[in-house]
C-alpha cells in the first residue's frame, strides 16, 4: 500500500525535471522532450488522484493529454524541421533573430 | 440518447468545421497556379454561416453533452466576437496571401478550425474540453505563425510560440490535475459546488498554476515575454488574429475559471499581474521602431487593463472586462489589418520610418489607422475610450483606487507611442520608396467592419454594454 | 446741458482725422481738428455762462448718462460733475488747447503725418476733458490713462528717432507706476466705501473723523493718490520722464507737458480735497514732495543749455509750487497758479518753439543769441512770459506765486516758505538767463553765409530731417529748414503767441488779493468747492486753516511785506542773470570750471536716470532673463519634463534587455513568474 | 508491502531516467532515457489500477510518439549539443528555480496531504482481472458517454495537427 | 421657435462637425474648401448668436437645457446647458473661428482639406466643453479637443513642431487623467455624472466618504485645469506650442483652449468643492500671482515675438485665476470678463503676428525694426490691440483687470497690490516690444518693401478691434448676464468675503444711485475694524 503523497511527490519531481530540462538544455528536440516529461509528471498526478477518488475522469483526462501530446509532437517536430531548414541548426541559443 | 437540441448548441462549431473541411476538399480541385480566391470566399461564407448559426443558437440557451458545454449569453457574446475577428482576418488576408504567396487552403482551413477552438473555449464548462479547445486554437495559431515559410523570422516565431506555449500548457494542465485532486471533478460548475466553504491548499495552488497557463495565453506579465517576438515574426493578418481571437477566448476561459468556479485567492495575483502588464507593456513600447512589435507591447499593456477589470471582480468588473475584450478586438484587428496591407510583399515596410508621410501617400489608410490608434490611446468617440472608462470606473466602484491611479497614468504614458505613429504618418517628410497599393475590396470591407465597430462602441456602447452585463450575470449564475 | 458734447467733439475730430485723414488735404484736416476743438471751446464758454447762472443749491451740476460697468454691489457710470473747479479746468483745457491747435497748424506745416498729429492732439483733448469733467474716480482714471496714452503717442510722434520712441515709452511706463498707486487708492475706496461716485463718496468721507492721530485709511488713500499724482505731474521721484518728453513737437510740450496734462495731478489732489483735509499726514507729504521738487528741478534748470530742457525743468518746479499750495490746503492758490502757469508756460513753450522753428530745429541756447532782431514778436511775447513766470508784478505769475508763498508761510511751516522763496529766485534767474542767452548778444548760430552747422546742430538735424523724410507722406521741404538766416514765424504761429502773451499779462488780475485791494474774484469763485470739502469739526481747524486765511485784514500788512520780499527776490534773479549772461558773458564758464564736478553732476540732472537704470531696470532684466527664463523655465521645469521623458525612454531601453530573443530565457521568466505565483498561492493556502 | 517495493523501484527508475535526460549531451540518449521514464510510469499506472492508461502509455506514448522523436532526431542527424557563450544566462540560473517549483509543490502537498498519507492506494487489487475500475471497458463507457464531445473534438485537433505537419514540413517546390 | 430653443445648443455644437464631415468628401480644390469652411464657421456664428438673443438675463440657472439619457449604465446623460458664463465663451469660440479661417486663408497652402477639417472638429469639441453639463460628456469633449489641436500644431506648425505637439499632448493628457479618476470616483459614489445632481448631492452631504476624498478630488480636477490654464509651474508647454503652431492654431489655443482651463476651475473646482476651494485658495492665488509677475518678466526679455505674447498669456491668465479664487463678485465677474478679453486681444495679437510671419517667416524681434514706416495700417492695428491688452481704459482689457484686481483686493489687500503691479509689467513688455519692432529706422532691408495689410487681413482684424472697443465702453452688454450667473456660483461662498458676500444674494440694480451708499454705510465699522 503506497501513500498517495508519494505518487504526487514523484510526479512533482518529474515535472520539475521537465522544467529544468527546458531551461538548461540547448537542443530544441531535447527541450521538446522535457516538455513531454512535464506532461508525464502531470499524467501521474491525474492517475494517482483518480486512484484515490475512485473516479475514472482522471484516466480520461490522461487519455486526452496523450492525444494532445501526440498532436503536439507531430506539429512540433514539423516546426522544428521547418526551423532547421531555414537555420541549419538545432541549438536554441542560435535561434534569436527576433529580439528586443 | 443525446437530445437534438444539443447539436444546435454546438451548431456554429459544427458549421465552421464543415466549411473548413470543404475548403480542404476544394483546394486540390483548383488549378495549381490559378487564383485561390474561391477558398477565401468559402471561408467568408463559412464564418457568415457561423454567425448565422450563433444567432440561431441564441434561441436555445442551456448546457449540452452531459454538461460539457453551456450556451449562454456569455458564450454567445464571445462567439460573435471571435467570428467577427475571423471574418475580418479572412477578408484582410485576401490580397495578403497572394502578395506573400502563402498556401491559401491550409491557411483558411486553420483559421476556421482555430476559430472552432476559440468558440469552444468560450462555451466549454468542462476542463477537458476547455483544454482540448485551447490546444486546437493554440496549435492552429502555432502553425499559422509559421506560414511565411521562406522567412526565417516566421519559422522562429512559430517555434518560440510553440515551445513556450506547450511549456505554459503543461502548467495549466498541472493546475487542472490539482483541481481534479482537490475537487474530484473537472466540471466548472462541479468545481464551484466543491469550492464552497474553506477551499484546500491544493485548490489555491491549482488556481495559481492555471493562471500561469492562461496568463501566458493572454500575454499578461510576467508571462508575456514571448509576445513581441512572435508578433514580429508572424504574418500580419495572423497577428491580427492571434492578438485578438485566442486572447479573447483565453480571457473567456480565465473568466470562467476564476469567477464561475469561485476560485479562491487570486486577487493579489491578478493585481500584480495587471500592474506589471500595464507598466512593462507601455514602457517597453516607448522606444520600439517596428510597428508590429510596438503593437505587440501595446497588446501586453491592454491585457493589463483587462486584468484591472478582473481585479474589480464584481458584476461591473466582469462586464467591463467583456466589453473591453470586444472593443480591443475591434480596434486591434483593424490596426493590424492596415499594417498587413502596408507591409506589402515580404513584410518589407513595418518600421516607423516606413510610415513617415503615410498621411500624404495614402490619406485614407492613414486616417483609418489613426482612428484605431486613437482608440488604443482611449480618445473619445472610439471604443477604446469607453472600454478604459468602464474598466476604471469598475475598479473604482470596488475601491481599487491605487490600481486605478496606476492604470490611468499608464494610459496617459501609452498615449506617447501611439502618438508617435501618428506623428510619423502626418508630421514627418514622406518616404517615396515605400509604395502603397490601393486598398483592395476585401481589405476595405474588413477595415470598414472594424472601423464601424470601433466607432459604434465609442458612440453608442449602450446595447453592447447591456449585453456584457447580462453575460456577466450568466457567467456567475 | 448735454455736457457730454464737450469731450465728444474732439473725439469725433480725432476719429475722423485718424481713420480718413491720410486721404484728406491739409486744409480739411485743419478744418476738422480746429473745428472740433474750437466748437468744444465755444461750448465750454457757453456752459460757463450757464453755470454762472445756476443757483448755489444746484451746484455741483451733475449729469449721469448710463452705467459703464457694474459688478455685484459696485457700479461706475458715465457722468459729468460740473462745479467751479471743473469749470475752470474745462475752460483752461479747451481754451489753451484751441490756441495751441492753431499754433500747430503753422508749426507742423512741413512735417509728415500731419493728420496723425492732429488726431492725436484731439484724442488728448478728449481724454483731458474726460479727466476734468468725470463724476467718478473711475472715469477720471479713464482720462488719466488716456492723456498718458496721448502723450505717449505725441512724444513718440517722430518715431523714427530712437530717442523719441524711448522717451514716449519712458513717459508711459513711469506714468503706469504712478497709476499703480492711483489704482490701489481706488481699490481702497471701493473696499471701504463701495463707490467711486464723487457725490456719494464725499457724503461717506464726511462721516469720517480727521486722522490727526496719524496714519489711517484716508491717509493711505491720500498717499497712494499722491503717488499717482507724482507720476502724472512729474514730481519726485517720478519726474524723470518729463525732460525726455521734450522729444515731442514743441506745441505738444506746450499743451501737454506744460499747460494741461501735467497739472492733472494738481487737479486730482484738489478734487480729492475732502479726503486730504481729513488726512493731514498725506497733505504734509504733498507739501514736502512739492517743495522739494520745486527747488530740485529749479537747480537743474539753472545749468541746462537746451532751451526746451530748461523750460521742462521749470515746469516741474512750477508744478512743485502747485503741490506745495495744495499741501498747505490752499487749493485755490494751487489752481490759480495752475491757470496762470498754463498761460505763461504754454506761451514760453510756443515762443521757444517759434525760436526753434525760426532756427530750423536749433534747440541749444549756446547757438542762439541776438534773436530779438530776427524775431521781434516772439521776443516780446517771450518777454511777457518770462516776467510772468519770474513773478514780477503785474504779470500773472506774480499773483499766483505770491499767494502760494503767503499761504505756505501762514500754514505755520516757514521752512516751506523759505524754500519756496529761494526757488522763486532761482526761477527768475534761469528764466532770465534763457531770455538773455536767446534774444540778446550776438547770433552765435551757424553763419547764414557759409550755411555750416555746429556739431550738435548736425546731430539735431540728422534726427529731425531724417524723421521728416521717412515718415509716411513725407514732406519734401522738411529738411530745407535751418539753412538761411533765422526768421520770424508765420502769423498763424505768432497770433497764438500774442493771445497767450496778453493772458500772461492780465491772467493774474482775476485773483488780486485783498491785501492789494483786489477782490480775489477767483478765490471767491472757487471757495465753495473747498468750503464744502473743508472740515467743520474744531479738531480739524488746527489741521487745515480755512482757505480764507490769507485774506484776513489784520494780516494784510504782513502779507504786503512778504509780497515785497518775493518781488525783490525775483528782481535779484533778474539782475544776476543780466550780470552773468549779458554784462559779463565769460563768467559762467569760469564758474562752471570752478564748480567742476558739481557743475557736471548738476548738468547731468544729478544722474537720477542712471541711478534708476542701475538700481531697478538692469537688475530686473538680468533677473528675468538669467534666473527666471534660462534658470527656472528652461532649466528647472523643462529640464524636469524632458528629463522625465528621457528617463522613461532609458527605462524602456533597459527593459528591452529582458527580450533577449532567447527561448530559454523567456521560459526562465515564465518559470520565475510561476515560482512567484506558486509561492504566493501556497502561502495563501496555508493561511 | 509489495506495492511499496514496486513503487520505489519504478519511482527510482523514473527519477533516474529524468535526471539522465538532463545530463545526457546527445538528444538520442535523452530520448531513450525518456522512454525509460515512460515505461516505468506505465508500470506505476498499472500499480494504480489504470490498465487502459498504462496500455495507451506504452503503445501511443512510449511507442508511436517517441518513435517519431527518434525518427526526427535521425532525420536531422542532430549531434552533440554545443554550449554557446551567448546562451541565456538567465535560463541556466533559473534551472534552480525550476527545482524550487518542484520542491514548493512537494512541500505544499506534504504539508497539506497529511491526511492523504494515510489514504493508501493501489496495492493487491491490481491483480484481479476484469473488475478493476480502470479497465478499458469502464473507460470506454465513460469516454463515449460523458466525454463524447471532447472525444469528437479531438478529431478537429488531429486534423489541424495533420494539416500543420503537412504545411510546415513539406519541402518548398 | 420652441424647437430651436430646445435644440440650439446641439445645433451650435454639431454644425461644425457636420461641416467637417461634408468637407471630407470635398474634392481637393483648396479654394472651394476654404470658402466652405468659412461658410460653416459663419453659419455657426449666426446660430450661436441665437443664444444671447434669447437668453433670459435675470435667471442665474442653466438655460437652453437639453437632457437626454445617452447610456443606461453607467448612467451617462447627454446634458447640455449654458449660463451667463459659458454662453459668452461659446460666442467667443464661434466668433474667433471665422477669423481663424480667414487668417489661414493663404498661410495654409498644402493639405488645406485636412487643416480645415481639423479646425471644424476642434470647434465642435471646444463648444462642447463649454456647454456640457454631464461630467462624462465634459471629459469626452475635453479629451476630444486634444488630438485636433496636437495635429494642427504638428502638421501645420514650423520649427520643432513635433516636440511642441507631443509636449502639448502629453502635458494635457497626463494631467487630465487625474480629472478622469476624480470623475469616476464621484460616479462610483453617486451613480451620476450630472453636474447639477452632483453639486446638490455634495452640498447636502449625500456622498459617502466625501470628506476624506474631497481634497484629492479637488486636486484631480485642479491639476487638469491648471495645466490647461496654464498656471505657473506647469506652463512650459504653452510657449513651445504657441511658437511652433500655425497662426490659427495659436489663436484658438490662446483664445479658447486656455479658457477651458479657467472655465473648468470656475465651474467645477468652485462649483463642486467650495470648501476645498476656499481652503486651497491661498497657495493657488500665490501661484496665480507668481504667474502674473513671472510671466510678465519672462515675456519682457523674450527675443521671439510669439514666445513673448505666449508668456503674456501666462500673465493674463494669472489674473483670471486670481479673480476666480478671490471668491468675490467683482473678482469672479472680472475673471470671466478677462477670459473674453484675453480671447479677443490675444487672439488678435496672434493674428497680427501671423500676418507678419506670412511676409517674413520669422518671429525674431531683431529681424524687425521700424515696421511702422512700410506698414502703417498694420502698425496702427497692432498698437490698438496692444493697448487693449495693456489694459487701457475704454478698451476691453481694462474692465476685466480692474474688476479682478479690486475683487482680489477685497479678498486680501496684499493680493490686489501684488497683482496690480501687473499693470506696470504689461506696459513694460508690450511697449518695449512694440518700440523695437515698429519704431526707429528700417534697419533690415528685407523689411523696406513689406506689403501693408490687404483686404482679407483687414476684414479678419476689424472685428477684433471693434470687439475690443465695444467691450471696453459698454461692458454691461456682457456683465448683465455674467453677473447673476457668477453670484449664483458664489452663493456657496456666502460665508466668505465681506462686501460682496452680502451683495451676491441681492439682485443687482446697477443704475440705482443710492445703493453704493448702502454698501458704503458699513464702511466706518470696517474701518474701525481694520
Give a quick rundown of the structure.
By secondary structure, chain C is an all-alpha fold.
Note down, in words, how this protein is organized:
Chain A has 100 residues and is mainly α. Chain A has one domain: Orthogonal Bundle (Helix Hairpins). Chain A has 3 helices and 1 strand; from the N terminus they run βααα. Residues 124-130 of chain D have low confidence and may be disordered. In chain E, a hairpin with a 4-residue loop joins strand 1 and strand 2. The radius of gyration of chain E is 22 Å and the shape is globular.
Structural classification of chain E = mainly alpha
Overall mean pLDDT of chain E stands at 86
- Distance between the amino and carboxyl termini of chain E: 55 Å
Largest sheet of chain E: 2 strands, antiparallel
Query: What strand line-up does the widest sheet of chain E have?
Result: 1-2
Kindly estimate the percentage of residues of chain C that lie in beta strands according to DSSP: under 5%
Radius of gyration of chain C: 31 Å
Outline type of chain E:
globular
| Structural class by helix and strand composition of chain C | mainly alpha
Given as residue ranges, the uncertain stretches of chain E (5+ residues, pLDDT < 50) are: 495-530
Helix segment count of chain E?
21
Radius of gyration of chain E, taken over Cα atoms and rounded to an integer in Å = 22 Å
User: Which protein chains make the most extensive interface, counting residues with beta carbons within 8 Å of the other chain's beta carbons?
Assistant: A-D, 71 and 87 residues
List SSEs of chain E in N-to-C order. HHEEHHHHHHHHHHHHHHHHHHH
> What's the assembly state of these chains?
heteropentamer
Coarse shape of chain C = globular
Q: In percent, how helical is the residue content of chain C?
A: over 70%
Q: What's the rounded overall pLDDT mean of chain C?
A: 83
* Termini Cα gap of chain C: 97 Å
The low-confidence parts of chain C are: 449-483, 537-551
Secondary structure layout:
The complex is a heteropentamer of chains A (100), B (477), C (687), D (173) and E (530).
Chain A: E1 2-3, H1 4-24, H2 28-53, H3 57-87
Chain D: H1 2-23, H2 27-47, H3 51-75, H4 89-112, H5 114-118, E1 120-121, H6 136-145, H7 148-169
Helix pairs in contact in D: 1-2, 2-3
Chain E: H1 2-24, H2 30-54, E1 63-71, E2 76-82, H3 84-107, H4 112-131, H5 135-156, H6 161-190, H7 195-203, H8 210-228, H9 237-244, H10 247-272, H11 274-300, H12 305-324, H13 329-360, H14 376-390, H15 396-411, H16 413-438, H17 455-473, H18 476-490, H19 498-505, H20 515-521, H21 523-529
Antiparallel strand pairs in E: 1-2
Amino acid at each position: 500500500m503506497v501513500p498517495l503523497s508519494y505518487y504526487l511527490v514523484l510526479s512533482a519531481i518529474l515535472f520539475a525535471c521537465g522544467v529544468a530540462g527546458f531551461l538548461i538544455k540547448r537542443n530544441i528536440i531535447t527541450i521538446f522532450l522535457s516538455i513531454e516529461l512535464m506532461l508525464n509528471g502531470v499524467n501521474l498526478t491525474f492517475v494517482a488522484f483518480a486512484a484515490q477518488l475512485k473516479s475514472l475522469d482522471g484516466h480520461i483526462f490522461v487519455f486526452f493529454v496523450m492525444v494532445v501530446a501526440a498532436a503536439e509532437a507531430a506539429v512540433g517536430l514539423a516546426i522544428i524541421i521547418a526551423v532547421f531548414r531555414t537555420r541549419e541548426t538545432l541549438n536554441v541559443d542560435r535561434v534569436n533573430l527576433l529580439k528586443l | 440518447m443525446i437530445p437534438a437540441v444539443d447539436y444546435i448548441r454546438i451548431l456554429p462549431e459544427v458549421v465552421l468545421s464543415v466549411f473548413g473541411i470543404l475548403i480542404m476538399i476544394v483546394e486540390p480541385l483548383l488549378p495549381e497556379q490559378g487564383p485561390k480566391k474561391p477558398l477565401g470566399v468559402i471561408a467568408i461564407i463559412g464564418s457568415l454561416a457561423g454567425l448565422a448559426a450563433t444567432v440561431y443558437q441564441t434561441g436555445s440557451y442551456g448546457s449540452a453533452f452531459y454538461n460539457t458545454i453551456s450556451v449562454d449569453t456569455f458564450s454567445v457574446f464571445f462567439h460573435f466576437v471571435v467570428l467577427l475577428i475571423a471574418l475580418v482576418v479572412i477578408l484582410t488576408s485576401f490580397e495578403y496571401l497572394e502578395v506573400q504567396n502563402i498556401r491559401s487552403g491550409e491557411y483558411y482551413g486553420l483559421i476556421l478550425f482555430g476559430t472552432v477552438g476559440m468558440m469552444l473555449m468560450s462555451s466549454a464548462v468542462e476542463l477537458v474540453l476547455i483544454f482540448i479547445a485551447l490546444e486546437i486554437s493554440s496549435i492552429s495559431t502555432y502553425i499559422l505563425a509559421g506560414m511565411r515559410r521562406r522567412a526565417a523570422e516566421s519559422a522562429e516565431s512559430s517555434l518560440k510560440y510553440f515551445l513556450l506555449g506547450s511549456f505554459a500548457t503543461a502548467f495549466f494542465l498541472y493546475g487542472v490535475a490539482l483541481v481534479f485532486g482537490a475537487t474530484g471533478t473537472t466540471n466548472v460548475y462541479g468545481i464551484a459546488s466543491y469550492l464552497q466553504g474553506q477551499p484546500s491548499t491544493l485548490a489555491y495552488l491549482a488556481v495559481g498554476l492555471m493562471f500561469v497557463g492562461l496568463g501566458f495565453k493572454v500575454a499578461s506579465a510576467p508571462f508575456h515575454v514571448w509576445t513581441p517576438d512572435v508578433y514580429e515574426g508572424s504574418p500580419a493578418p495572423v497577428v491580427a488574429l492571434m492578438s485578438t481571437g485566442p486572447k479573447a477566448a483565453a480571457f473567456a476561459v480565465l473568466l470562467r475559471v476564476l469567477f464561475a468556479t469561485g476560485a479562491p485567492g487570486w486577487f493579489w495575483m491578478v493585481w500584480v499581474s495587471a500592474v506589471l502588464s500595464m507598466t512593462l507593456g507601455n514602457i517597453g513600447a516607448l522606444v520600439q521602431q517596428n510597428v508590429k512589435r510596438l503593437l505587440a507591447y501595446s497588446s501586453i499593456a491592454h491585457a493589463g487593463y483587462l486584468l484591472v477589470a478582473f481585479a474589480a471582480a464584481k458584476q461591473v468588473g466582469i462586464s467591463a472586462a467583456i466589453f473591453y475584450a470586444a472593443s480591443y478586438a475591434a480596434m486591434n484587428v483593424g490596426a493590424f489589418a492596415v499594417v498587413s496591407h502596408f507591409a506589402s510583399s515580404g513584410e518589407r515596410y513595418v518600421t516607423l520610418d516606413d510610415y513617415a508621410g503615410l498621411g500624404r501617400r495614402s490619406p485614407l489608410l492613414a486616417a483609418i489607422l489613426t482612428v484605431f490608434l486613437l482608440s488604443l490611446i482611449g480618445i473619445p468617440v472610439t471604443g477604446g475610450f469607453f472600454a478604459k472608462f468602464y474598466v476604471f470606473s469598475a475598479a473604482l466602484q470596488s475601491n481599487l483606487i491605487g490600481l486605478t491611479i496606476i492604470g490611468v497614468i499608464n494610459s496617459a504614458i501609452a498615449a506617447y507611442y501611439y502618438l508617435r505613429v501618428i506623428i510619423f504618418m502626418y508630421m514627418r517628410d514622406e518616404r517615396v520608396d515605400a509604395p502603397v497599393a490601393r486598398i483592395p475590396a476585401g481589405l476595405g470591407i474588413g477595415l470598414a467592419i472594424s472601423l464601424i465597430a470601433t466607432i459604434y462602441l465609442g458612440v453608442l456602447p449602450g446595447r453592447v454594454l447591456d449585453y456584457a452585463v447580462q453575460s456577466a450575470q450568466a457567467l456567475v449564475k | 446741458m448735454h455736457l457730454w458734447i464737450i469731450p465728444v467733439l474732439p473725439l469725433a475730430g480725432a476719429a475722423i482725422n485718424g481713420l480718413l485723414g491720410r486721404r484728406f488735404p491739409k486744409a480739411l484736416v485743419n478744418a476738422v481738428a480746429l473745428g472740433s476743438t474750437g466748437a468744444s471751446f465755444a461750448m465750454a464758454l457757453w456752459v460757463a455762462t450757464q453755470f454762472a447762472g445756476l443757483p448755489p443749491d444746484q451746484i455741483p451740476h451733475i449729469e449721469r448718462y448710463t452705467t459703464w460697468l457694474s459688478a455685484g454691489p459696485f457700479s461706475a457710470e458715465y457722468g459729468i460733475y460740473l462745479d467751479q473747479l471743473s469749470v475752470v479746468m474745462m475752460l483752461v483745457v479747451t481754451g489753451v488747447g484751441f490756441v495751441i491747435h492753431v499754433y500747430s497748424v503753422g508749426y507742423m506745416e512741413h512735417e509728415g503725418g500731419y493728420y496723425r498729429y492732429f488726431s492725436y492732439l484731439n484724442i488728448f483733448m478728449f481724454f483731458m476733458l474726460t479727466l476734468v469733467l468725470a463724476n467718478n474716480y473711475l472715469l477720471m482714471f479713464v482720462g488719466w490713462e488716456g492723456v498718458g496714452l496721448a502723450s505717449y503717442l505725441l512724444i513718440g510722434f517722430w518715431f523714427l528717432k530712437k530717442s523719441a520712441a524711448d522717451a514716449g515709452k519712458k513717459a508711459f511706463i513711469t506714468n503706469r507706476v504712478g497709476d499703480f498707486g492711483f489704482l490701489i487708492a481706488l481699490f481702497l475706496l471701493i473696499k471701504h466705501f463701495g463707490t467711486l461716485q464723487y457725490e456719494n463718496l464725499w457724503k461717506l468721507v464726511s462721516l469720517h473723523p480727521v486722522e490727526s492721530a496719524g496714519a489711517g485709511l484716508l491717509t493711505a488713500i491720500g498717499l497712494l493718490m499722491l503717488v499717482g499724482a507724482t507720476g502724472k505731474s512729474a514730481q519726485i521721484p517720478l519726474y524723470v520722464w518729463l525732460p525726455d518728453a521734450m522729444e515731442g513737437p514743441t506745441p505738444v510740450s506746450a499743451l501737454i507737458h506744460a499747460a494741461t496734462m501735467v497739472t492733472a495731478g494738481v487737479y486730482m489732489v484738489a478734487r480729492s480735497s475732502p479726503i486730504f483735509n481729513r488726512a493731514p499726514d498725506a497733505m504734509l507729504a504733498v507739501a514736502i514732495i512739492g517743495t522739494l521738487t520745486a527747488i530740485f528741478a529749479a537747480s537743474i534748470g539753472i545749468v541746462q543749455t537746451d532751451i526746451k530742457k530748461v523750460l521742462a525743468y521749470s515746469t516741474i518746479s512750477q508744478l512743485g509750487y502747485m503741490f506745495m499750495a495744495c499741501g498747505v490746503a490752499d487749493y485755490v492758490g494751487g489752481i490759480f497758479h495752475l491757470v496762470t502757469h498754463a498761460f505763461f508756460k504754454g506761451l514760453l513753450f510756443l515762443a521757444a518753439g517759434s525760436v526753434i522753428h525760426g532756427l530750423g530745429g536749433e534747440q541749444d541756447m549756446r547757438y542762439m543769441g541776438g534773436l530779438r532782431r530776427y524775431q521781434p514778436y516772439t521776443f516780446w511775447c517771450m518777454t511777457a512770459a518770462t516776467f510772468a513766470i519770474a513773478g514780477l508784478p503785474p504779470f500773472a505769475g506774480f499773483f499766483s506765486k505770491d499767494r502760494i508763498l503767503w499761504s505756505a508761510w501762514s500754514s505755520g511751516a516757514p521752512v516751506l516758505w523759505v524754500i519756496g522763496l529761494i526757488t522763486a529766485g532761482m526761477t527768475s534767474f534761469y528764466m532770465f538767463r534763457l531770455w538773455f542767452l536767446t534774444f540778446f548778444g550776438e547770433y552765435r548760430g551757424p553763419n547764414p553765409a557759409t550755411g555750416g552747422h555746429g556739431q550738435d546742430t548736425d546731430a539735431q538735424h540728422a534726427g529731425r530731417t531724417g524723421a521728416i523724410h521717412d515718415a509716411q507722406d513725407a514732406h519734401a521741404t522738411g529738411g530745407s529748414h535751418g539753412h538761411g538766416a533765422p526768421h520770424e514765424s508765420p502769423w498763424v504761429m505768432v497770433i497764438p503767441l500774442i493771445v497767450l502773451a496778453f493772458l500772461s499779462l492780465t491772467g493774474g488780475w482775476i485773483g488780486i488779493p485783498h491785501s492789494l485791494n483786489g477782490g480775489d474774484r477767483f478765490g471767491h469763485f472757487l471757495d465753495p468747492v473747498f468750503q464744502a470739502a473743508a472740515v467743520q469739526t474744531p479738531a480739524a481747524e488746527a489741521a487745515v486753516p480755512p482757505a480764507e486765511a490769507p485774506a484776513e485784514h489784520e494780516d494784510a500788512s504782513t502779507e504786503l511785506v512778504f509780497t515785497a520780499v518775493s518781488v525783490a527776490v525775483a528782481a535779484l534773479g533778474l539782475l544776476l542773470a543780466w550780470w552773468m549772461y549779458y554784462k559779463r558773458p565769460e563768467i559762467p564758464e569760469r564758474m562752471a570750471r570752478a564748480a567742476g564736478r558739481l557743475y557736471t553732476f548738476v548738468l547731468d540732472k544729478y544722474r537720477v536716470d542712471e541711478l534708476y537704470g542701475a538700481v531697478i531696470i538692469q537688475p530686473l532684466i538680468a533677473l528675468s532673463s538669467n534666473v527666471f527664463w534660462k534658470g527656472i523655465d528652461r532649466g528647472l521645469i523643462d529640464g524636469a519634463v524632458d528629463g522625465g521623458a528621457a528617463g522613461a525612454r532609458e527605462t524602456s531601453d533597459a527593459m528591452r534587455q529582458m527580450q533577449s530573443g532567447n527561448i530559454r530565457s523567456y521560459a526562465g521568466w515564465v518559470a520565475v513568474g510561476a515560482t512567484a505565483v506558486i509561492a504566493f498561492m501556497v502561502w495563501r493556502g496555508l493561511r | 508491502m509489495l506495492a511499496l517495493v514496486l513503487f520505489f523501484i519504478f519511482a527510482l527508475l523514473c527519477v533516474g531516467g529524468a535526471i539522465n535526460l538532463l545530463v545526457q549531451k546527445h538528444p538520442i540518449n535523452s530520448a531513450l532515457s525518456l522512454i525509460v521514464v515512460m515505461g516505468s510510469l506505465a508500470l506505476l499506472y498499472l500499480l494504480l489500477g489504470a490498465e487502459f492508461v498504462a496500455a495507451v502509455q506504452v503503445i501511443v506514448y512510449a511507442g508511436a510518439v517517441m518513435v517519431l522523436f527518434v525518427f526526427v532526431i535521425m532525420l536531422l542527424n542532430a549531434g552533440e549539443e554545443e554550449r554557446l557563450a551567448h546562451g541565456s544566462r538567465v535560463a541556466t540560473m533559473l534551472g534552480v528555480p525550476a527545482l524550487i517549483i518542484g520542491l514548493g509543490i512537494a512541500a505544499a502537498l506534504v504539508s497539506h496531504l497529511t491526511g492523504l498519507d494515510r489514504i493508501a492506494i493501489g496495492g493487491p487489487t491490481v491483480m484481479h482481472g476484469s473488475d478493476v475500475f480502470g479497465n478499458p471497458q469502464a473507460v470506454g463507457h465513460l469516454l463515449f458517454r460523458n466525454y463524447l464531445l471532447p472525444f469528437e473534438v479531438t478529431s478537429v485537433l488531429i486534423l489541424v495537427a495533420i494539416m500543420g505537419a503537412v504545411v510546415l514540413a513539406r519541402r518548398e517546390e | 421657435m420652441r424647437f430651436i430653443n430646445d435644440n440650439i445648443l446641439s445645433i451650435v455644437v454639431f454644425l461644425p462637425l457636420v461641416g467637417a464631415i461634408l468637407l471630407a468628401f470635398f474634392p481637393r480644390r483648396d479654394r472651394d474648401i476654404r470658402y466652405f469652411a468659412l461658410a460653416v464657421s459663419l453659419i455657426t456664428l449666426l446660430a450661436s448668436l441665437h443664444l444671447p438673443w434669447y437668453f433670459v438675463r435675470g435667471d442665474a440657472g442653466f438655460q437652453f437645457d437639453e437632457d437626454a439619457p445617452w447610456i443606461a449604465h453607467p448612467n451617462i446623460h447627454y446634458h447640455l446647458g449654458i449660463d451667463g458664463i459659458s454662453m459668452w465663451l461659446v460666442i467667443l469660440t464661434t466668433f474667433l473661428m471665422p477669423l481663424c479661417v480667414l487668417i489661414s486663408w493663404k498661410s495654409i497652402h498644402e493639405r488645406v482639406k485636412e487643416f480645415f477639417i481639423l479646425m471644424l472638429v476642434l470647434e465642435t469639441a471646444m463648444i462642447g466643453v463649454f456647454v456640457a453639463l454631464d461630467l462624462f460628456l465634459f471629459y469626452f469633449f475635453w479629451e476630444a479637443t486634444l488630438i485636433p489641436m496636437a495635429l494642427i500644431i504638428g502638421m501645420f506648425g514650423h520649427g520643432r513642431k513635433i516636440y511642441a505637439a507631443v509636449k502639448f499632448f502629453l502635458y494635457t493628457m497626463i494631467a487630465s487623467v487625474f480629472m478622469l479618476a476624480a470623475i469616476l470616483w464621484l460616479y462610483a459614489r453617486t451613480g451620476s455624472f450630472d453636474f447639477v445632481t452632483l453639486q446638490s448631492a455634495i452640498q447636502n452631504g449625500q456622498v459617502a466618504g466625501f470628506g476624506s476624498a474631497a481634497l484629492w478630488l479637488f486636486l484631480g480636477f485642479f491639476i487638469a485645469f491648471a495645466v490647461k490654464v496654464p498656471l505657473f509651474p506647469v506652463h512650459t508647454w504653452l510657449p513651445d506650442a504657441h511658437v511652433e503652431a500655425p497662426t490659427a492654431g495659436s489663436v484658438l489655443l490662446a483664445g479658447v483652449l486656455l479658457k477651458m482651463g479657467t472655465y473648468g476651475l470656475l465651474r467645477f473646482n468652485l462649483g463642486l468643492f467650495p470648501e476645498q476651494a476656499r481652503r486651497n485658495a491661498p497657495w493657488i492665488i500665490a501661484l496665480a500671482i507668481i504667474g502674473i509677475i513671472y510671466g510678465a518678466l519672462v515675456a519682457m526679455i523674450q527675443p521671439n515675438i510669439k514666445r513673448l505674447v505666449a508668456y503674456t498669456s501666462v500673465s493674463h491668465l494669472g489674473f483670471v485665476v486670481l479673480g476666480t479664487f478671490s471668491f468675490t463678485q467683482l473678482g469672479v465677474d472680472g475673471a470671466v470678463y478677462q477670459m473674453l478679453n484675453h480671447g479677443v486681444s490675444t487672439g488678435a495679437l496672434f493674428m497680427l503676428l501671423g500676418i507678419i510671419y506670412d511676409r517674413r517667416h520669422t518671429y525674431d524681434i531683431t529681424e524687425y525694426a521700424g515696421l511702422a514706416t512700410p506698414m502703417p495700417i498694420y502698425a496702427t492695428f497692432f498698437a490698438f490691440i496692444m493697448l487693449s491688452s495693456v489694459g487701457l481704459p475704454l478698451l476691453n482689457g481694462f474692465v476685466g483687470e480692474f474688476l479682478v484686481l479690486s475683487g482680489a483686493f477685497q479678498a486680501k489687500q496684499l493680493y490686489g497690490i501684488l497683482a496690480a503691479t501687473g499693470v506696470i509689467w504689461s506696459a513694460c513688455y508690450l511697449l518695449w516690444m512694440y518700440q523695437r519692432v515698429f519704431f526707429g529706422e528700417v534697419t533690415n532691408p528685407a523689411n523696406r518693401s513689406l506689403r501693408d495689410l490687404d483686404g482679407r487681413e483687414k476684414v479678419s482684424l476689424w472685428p477684433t478691434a471693434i470687439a475690443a472697443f465695444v467691450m471696453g465702453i459698454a461692458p454691461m452688454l456682457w456683465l448683465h448676464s455674467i453677473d447673476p450667473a457668477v453670484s449664483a456660483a458664489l452663493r456657496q461662498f456666502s460665508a466668505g468675503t465681506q462686501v460682496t458676500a452680502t451683495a451676491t444674494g441681492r439682485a443687482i440694480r446697477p443704475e440705482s444711485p443710492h445703493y453704493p451708499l448702502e454698501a458704503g454705510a458699513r464702511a466706518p465699522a470696517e474701518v474701525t475694524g481694520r
